[in-house]
Amino acid sequence: MIPEEQNSAQSTSDGRQPSPYPWLTPLMIVMAVVALAIGGLALHYIETRLLAVSGETLALAASDIAGKLDLLLAERYGDIQIMAQAKVFHERDVAAMTRRLTALMEAYPVYAWMGVTDTRGRIIAATDPVTVGLDRRQAPWFRAVQDGGRIHVEDADVSEESGGVLAVSFTAPITSPDGAFLGAVTTRVGLPVLEDAFARTANALQAQYGTGTRIEYQFLQRDGTVIADSFLREEGKINLKHLGLPSAGLYDNAPSGYVEEMHSRLQVPVVTGYAQTEQHGNDYGFHWGILVRMDREDILAPTRIVLWKVGAGGALVFAPMLGFLLWSTGRLRKEWTVAQKETAHAIAAERELTARNRELEQTLLEVKVLRGFIPICASCKKIRNDQGYWQQIETYIQDHSEALFSHGMCQECMKKFYPEFSVE
Question: pTM of this prediction?
Answer without folding.
Answer: 0.65
